[in-house]
Amino acid sequence: MWIGFIGVALSLCSFSMQNMQSLRQVAIFSNIAFVIYGVMEAQLPTIVLSSILLPLNSWRLFQIKALVKDIENAKADTPVSQWLLPHMVAQSFPAGHLLFRKGAAADDLYYLHTGKVKLVEIDKTLNAGELFGEIGIFSSSKQRTVSIVCETDCLLYKLAHDSLYKLYFQQPKLGFHLIRLIVDRLSGIPNHPGLPSGEAVKLT
User: Fold this and answer.
1) Cβ-based neighbour number of residue 19 at 10 Å
2) Which of 84, 120, 132, 189 is 20 to 30 A off residue 61, Cα-Cα?
3) What is the percent of the chain with per-residue pLDDT over 70, rounded to a whole number?
């Protein structure tokens, strides 16, 4: 009988938790307790229900741990092809082409497939394999913070901001990747003498 009350207590405890990993762990112990109780008291419905919930909660716990591990391993150089390229449109631009000016509306995210682009106001060059445009999209002003010009002929992949928002919420790993990318850029660039204090850390 006591094992049944333990199962009830654990089940109630799981419903009060906000942390999903802890919730699943407690739910698993609750399922185990109910299976034991069902066997001891010959309660077939309890055995069946708990036997179904036990592997389900175990699988959910495995998924949560796998997601946490993927997020912890997501770094600024993580390949984006599996997340973004299938949803992006390719465009070619010649050397000297102005992609956008500082202050323009930030409507798109870019992935530089080949070539080089220059961030004019802070005299910084981005090379193939880099994302840019994310800071303007996620800023409150929704405006570009620098002008960008193609230093060479470039092949770019472009993603509209509304599509990026959808992918951001659908794919947690992508969201965490973008957060790390923005933080790394903001923390790694010193103030530029030609810009007001704080402006030089803004990229795109």
Assistant:
1) 10
2) 84
3) 80
